[in-house]
């Protein structure tokens, strides 16, 4: 039967470029909304078609890896969801060990578990016991990689960086002004008191007018003012910084891709509407088939660009 090859080995040995391929390794796996394990890798055919996801569904102290057909998986950016599976079905699946041959009988048994054990798996006798992936049956997508046509839109990203907006120099300088100071100064004045003699009396002895003339000297004192200066602390200045927030509006032009559906004849396309976000991607998955790149050897790659 056709040998299944780990995707990592295919890249390593055949030098396949996975630059455009979304590798789900490491993403958590959910079954019917309940986490059941972690994706550890993927298996491909020799031709590069992705067939299975390797999911570790073991517990805290154990490891059990099972193979989930890629067509049952819904792969998002942060998880792999297997909506049609329950946690009980995951436990009933055959354990897969790295490097083992995954026989067509084991594949059929696991598919019966995935189908609830009630439906007959449409096996076809193939040469060498090869399992039939039913690639020619467009209605059976169990082993077909989910296709997405993603519409992109640009969104403005605001990046902030700190820069020197200005500087402030703080120093001191001397400014002068003229002040008037009023001060009281004392000075002595000469006081002369003259009293008339009511009863003149004679001067004894011989007196000649003009003789014995006397001169009296009286010193008068006065206060003078002198200005001195002394420095006083009148103000203290503390220097620091604080952060303030100002609102600024930035404007830019962005573009987005919109779905363009061209009809030929009288047809109805489900999901033909302008949508964005996660709901929009789901609508596109239901209504539009993306065109595969025929030149890419990884036919059925998972692209999340």
What does this structure look like?
- This protein has 305 residues and is mostly loops.
- The protein has 2 domains: 1-148 and 290-305, Photosynthetic Reaction Center, Chain H, domain 2; 149-163 and 243-289, no CATH class.
- 12% of the residues lie in helices and 11% in strands.
- The chain has helices spanning 7-14, 87-92, 104-114, 277-287, and strands at 5-6, 28-31, 34-44, 50-56, 65-69, 74-75, 80-82.
- Strands 1, 2, 3, 4, 5, 6 and 7 form a 7-stranded mixed sheet that branches.
- It is rod-shaped and about 175 Å long.
- The relative contact order is 0.16.
- The model is unreliable at 274-305 (pLDDT under 50).
Assigned CATH architecture of the largest domain:
Alpha-Beta Complex
Outline the low-pLDDT stretches: 274-305
| Rg over C-alpha atoms, rounded to the nearest angstrom | 53 Å
What percent of residues adopt helix (DSSP H or I)? Answer: 10-25%
> Quick one: CATH class of the largest domain?
Alpha Beta
SSE string: EHEEEEEEHHH
What can be said about the biggest beta sheet? 7 strands, mixed
Q: How would you state the average pLDDT, rounded?
A: 76
Tell me briefly what this model is.
The chain is largely without helices or strands.
Features:
305 residues; Photosynthetic Reaction Center, Chain H, domain 2; disordered C terminus; 7 strands; 12% helix; rod-shaped; 11% strand; little secondary structure; 2 domains; seven-stranded mixed β-sheet
